[in-house]
User: Fold these one by one.
Assistant:
Number 1:
Amino acid sequence: MTTLSLSNFNGLVPRTGAANLDAVNAQVAVNTRLQSGEIKSWKGKTEEYQTIQEGVQTIFKIEGPSGEGAWAEWTCDTDVVFSPMADLKEHRFYYSEAGVCKKSNWTMAHDGLDGTPIPRNWLYLGVPRPNKAPHATATRTDTSPENTEERAYVYTYVSTFGDVKEESAPSDACNVTADIVGGKVVFDEFPVAPTEHYNITALRLYRAVIGSSEISYMLVDEFTVVKGEVVTSKRSLNGVRFEDGKYPDTRKTEQLGIVLESMYYEEPPEGLRGLVNMPNGMIAGFVGNQVWFCEPYLPHAWPSTYMLTTDSQIVGLGVYGNTLVVCTERQPFTIAGTHPSAMTQEKLPMLQPCINKRSIAYDQYGVLYASSNGLVVIAGGQMDVFSRPLFTREGWLEYNPVVMVGSMYNNNYLCGYQQGNTAGMFVFARGDTPALIKVEFDPVCLFVERVTGYVYGLSHSDGIVYRLDSSSTNLMGYTWKSKLFVYPRSLSFSCAKVDAEFDDKETALMLNKERQKIIDHNLEQAQKYKDQCFLGCLNDVPVDTWTVNGGVLLDVPEEAQLRYVQVTFYSDDKVIYTKDVSDCVAFRLPPYNGYRWEVRFAGHVPIRAFQMATSMVELMGQ
């Protein structure tokens, strides 16, 4: 006489054979929520956004005024970061699209034809350095040696990005011999500034001044730039009038303005990718085997003096705390610090190459990425193949890690995979139970909204962005299949019972009744206000008839799907019985003798426990 009892249900351990699993582990665990030890479902997904372009690879929800949001989309791998600067109304963001670094904000992103992909307008991330030295001629009144000095002049471009002024690195210097007192230096030519996807609105002229220990460039004047050209019909910032289109510098050293701060503010290097936000206003990116950092809180400035290198090509970057994890084609590196001029670099003694940039994800606990040996985790005091207890190397490679996409959600690592013609998603728990399940979703890419923590995925199959685990009405249908129980002699289990929350089946009926009430209400209101505006049109109905910007009709929720639980019994690899269970009452099984037994549950109703036995007496004794 034998009984089989299941409770405290757990997830997948693919590296372990079906017969060698622990009794609580599963061969199949799809769309299951098992943290409580019961079999429950993930919530259903809800449609959020239909992509406009074919072949979208990256999605990002930009933030707008009053909590608004809008979906941006790109057809190539694109890295997007939020502004590290103070930003209360412009909602700036920065991105690297196929290695071309750009910037935009809420207003610019919507500046274009409706129905076209966002962002519709943008500027290049950096501000270009002027490509020519200024042209200057000295007019002298006293050429004596004691009234003679050698001067050097440079100029910079100033770009306007919303309310932000961004200054370029200076041009090459022009040298001129001039009077200390009297005379003037005349500038008669400034090259035309670039205009396409740049917004250069000013030009600043600087003069070199020798201090006690260093040479500094100090501001002489600033000029307005329109369509790339200096406007000579207007006075300068200091009120100086141009003379026949020429600017005269007659200012004494003590009259000069601020010191040039943008001496090393280079544009981001060509091909910069992998942008990530770091603390203290830093953004990091990479080119080849070089790691670059922007000037803190100045995303347009990328001094080459901050650049660090690794001994192998970089695949991608991740961040936890003040530490930047550099995932390479060989060993990972960490770079830590609070300012890009004082970063310390460490090469980790772990040969785990990153084989897929899009698999990199990170949270407060560390960085995870896909290697050919499994899912690697790097954190403070930890570096290991996180998935080793779950997957063998061969089993891991079956899921094609070179095309995996990853994201962190609610302390879980979501991992989209493709296995042959099948696409799905693993959910790896970080320090929780179950360690691993699958979810039926085929993500091209994933995105987690920073304000709400909601996770979104772009589906391979229909190009729609869904919010996952979100439906307030419907659940995803779960499937959980037990380990293979092998007995030394042939057994015939004759009865079984399922302990489940069968009252949950009534939930769908209740929701649909409420839905029908809303539909009936709308039909009634449509008849009542026939031939009138339903949307609160001005002067159409008396004041206080309905809410401003609202309407008389209520939103109709989606129809609730019927909920059920189905149990399937296997013996010696054959399906011997399937039953839709509606209550906790024990039921009979057809007679069948077998050595190997398995049980599968499918449906939506939460299951607490399951028992089957070779006799009803045994079953009732459980």
Note: Residues 239 and 316 are 50 Å apart (CA to CA).
Number 2:
Amino acid sequence: MKRNLFLLILATAMLASSCTPKVKVVENPIFEQILTRNIDISRIEISDSATLVTVDVTYYPNYWITFSKNTHIEVEGQEFVATAIEGTEFDKRFWMPESGEASFKLTFPPISKKAKSMNFFEGSENSDWKIYDIDLTGRKKEITKWHPELPEELRKEINDMEIPEPIFEQGRTKLRIHLMGFKEGMDRTIELKASSMASVNDDKKVTYDPEKGYAETELLLFGSTRYNFFNRNVNGDFWLAPNEDVDIYIDCRGFTKTVYGRRAGRDEYLPASVYTTGIYSDYNNALSNRIGLISIPPYEIKKEFNYKMSAEDYLAKIREIRKFYLDSLDRRIELRPIDRKISKLMIDLNYCELAMQAEANLTTAFKREHKDIEWRDLAKHYTPPTFTADFYKDALQDIDLNDKSYLMTQLNPIYSFNRNLRLLDLSDGNVYKEQNLYDWDLLRKTQNLTITAEEMEQAKKFKNQLFYEALQHHYIETQREYAQTQGKAKIEHTPNVADDKLLETIIAPHKGKVVVVDFWFVGCYGCTLDFGYYAPLKKKSELKDVVWIYVDCESALVPYTTRIADLDGIHYRFTREQWDAVGKKYGFDFAPTYFFVEKDGSFRRREDLRHPDKLESALKEMLKR
């Protein structure tokens, strides 16, 4: 009997052993936090000989990525460095295909099949891709709505509320910014960028202190102000009012929500959820947890226009477009009431912009169908219809231009309205007129130090002194910051020639040389990416004779001079009018735009050489000629 029992136990053990999988597979593992929206782990295979991790990458088409040779996983405090990779090579640039998607399989040493979680680190720098607490048990769960570190009093479901009114006063507001879910290795620097009725290019950097559990700063606000925040790991936005003491709680799982959404077939970027104390606490909560806002997509919708339209046809078309998106808003039953209110305001603002840009939109429509006609010759071939003051008045008759709620949307109506509102005969009681909100161009002049004494004196007479105070502040701060950049960057004098002759004039002194001319501006993300791609080319001895010329379009003075301080090359700073004249002549209205100049002085615009390897080959060929 005992012998039979022993054999039964032995057989059961052998059966259990034979049922243990030789390879443990986890599909689409959940994770606690990811510090990029560009990667996902779709499969993990754990065997006795290796650990295989499939990494899916989503990135800009025709831009490069790399996997560091220091890529590693951490399991139970132990580090395992990758030994091989399929699909590319370590520390070598991989150029993303047109689809913007690629998959790679990384091999690591074997880990315990009993391990419950692991971390993934692509390298050891702050900017490298990181995923924390990747589940290895096969559990499935949804990400929790409220972060455990969020105070109970801020855990509110805000489905409806009135859009708060903007505040028109100056004041200092103190901030404490909490990064909920902060982990060692995350970026501690938080950049803040203001967007308000009396602010432009107001940037601030603060540093998160893990020991305190927050970053702190004080901001001078000119009226209600929306701040965008971002670093390598999180980004989003929130509203602030002057004269407050506010705590900001940022849920660092924004990228996690985005990647989970992509798995579910929702290809949308979700900003980090933000919760605040203060006057705009509920509004920030509502905006942060928006289900989806509807607006008119400006670039796609412009394809709807036919250059043969009359002013009446154009007006009928944009009204049709507005009605279509308002009807779409009505059909979106899943939206909360607050989402509907904000979307309605955004659709109205988009519609206003279409009305104000009528002439430009029809001219662009003509060029789209007549690609053989150069921009400089368009006036000979096409005359847009006349858009009178009555046209604008008629177009905007259904828009309440005295509604201050427009100032509290995700869009900045001041930028869209600034010059264009002058086309309208606004009544003396209109909020935009009373608050001088359509003189936004003066703010840009203060930050370029081009505002005149006469303009500043005129601003003194504004009924609302908030705007004048903002002009004074921005002008003084720009003078101070600009003085600190002196001697670090040289800006060439723009030649005194006709605007449409500027390109030929700035390249003329370099005849006999190969020249690259780069039209760019500070806010152009692709432009600054390219700077990094091309920097190694400048150091190659065989390309040392290439001349690099950079032409900026009137970017704010301080960010511009700071950016070019370490950008080797010859620098020009064109006005908006000069840039437009050259663009009209040579057919471009975007950045970056590149011109390549042969030794004989001939040149042409090319967009096919943004790949560094292609550019290097082309420049070497040009140098041989």
Note: Residues 311-331 form the longest helix (21 residues).
